[in-house]
Specification:
The chain is α/β, with parallel strands linked by helices. The chain has helices spanning 23-34, 82-94, 132-143, 148-167, 171-181, 184-193, 195-209; strands at residues 15-19, 38-43, 56-59, 74-77, 98-101, 114-118, 121-125, 238-241. Strands 3-2-1-4-5 form a five-stranded parallel beta sheet, with helices on both faces. Strands 7-6-8 form a three-stranded antiparallel beta sheet.
């Protein structure tokens, strides 16, 4: 059996169609809205919880013409009718749009994963359609092992990475610094000595690759600036999504 190809999509402001308004559709819609997608829901009946969410809601049966109304990036067939889901998938395939049949992994172009979020870190687990329940169990076990120090480092890296890309023109030197700031030395500095010393180390490394920098090359919007640091995992920090 071929392995599924893992990928993380940027769906911000991209149109996504969900056909169905039940519990399964609700879970998909919540995840898509969190990803910033522009979600349209077509269903004859909509769960009351959808009233609090902000997708475009069309309360009527799905029609094949709906597949042509937008340049859909993804389509989810999430009704309780296998025949209806198969029709949605067939219509999407004709237009070469990737479609997830939420009732039948073998008839889908892609499948969602059991996901846990810890800050900017995303942990996704798939069983290749064998068992979503097992994938969720594996996700839960793996999520307990997510190191809060590495999560904190992941929160710091975007600003540091942007600064390195701005001041270091040579691609090989820049790549070397980016590997350093995500590496074990920075991790141990953050773990043992806290945020302030991690910022000092980043500053020293940045200057070593670009000696002409001023005294403090960190930008004012550095997420670590002016804040204390306590290395302690907060309860409820890890968010789960099936």
């Amino acid at each position: 059996m071929a392995r599924p190809y893992p990928i993380f999509l940027d769906l911000k402001l991209r149109p996504v169609l969900v056909v169905g308004g039940g519990a399964v559709a609700l879970r998909k819609i919540r995840g898509l809205l969190e990803a910033g997608a522009r979600v349209t829901v077509i269903a004859t009946e909509l769960r009351p919880e959808l009233a609090k969410l902000k997708p475009q809601k069309i309360r009527r049966p799905y029609a094949s013409a709906d597949m042509r109304t937008q340049p859909w990036q993804l389509v989810f067939a999430a009704t309780d009718s296998p025949e209806e889901n198969a029709r949605v998938h067939k219509d999407a395939s004709r237009r070469r749009i990737l479609c997830c049949r939420c009732d039948e992994s073998d008839g889908s172009d892609f499948a969602g994963a059991a996901v846990a979020y810890a800050g900017p870190v995303t942990l996704a687990v798939s069983s290749a359609g064998a068992s979503p329940a097992l994938a969720a169990r594996i996700r839960d076990k793996a999520a307990t092992a997510i190191d809060p120090v590495l999560v904190r480092l992941a929160e710091l890296l975007p600003t540091w990475r942007a600064r390195a890309k701005k001041v270091i023109a040579h691609p090989q030197l820049r790549r070397k610094l980016l590997q350093q700031i995500a590496g074990p030395v920075m991790e141990e500095t953050l773990r043992k000595h806290g945020l302030r010393q991690a910022r000092v180390l980043f500053t020293r490394w940045l200057r070593s690759y670009s000696p002409g920098l001023g005294r403090d090359p960190l930008s004012p919007d550095d997420p670590g600036q002016g804040r204390g640091y306590v290395m302690k995992a907060k309860s409820g920090r890890i968010k789960k999504r099936d």
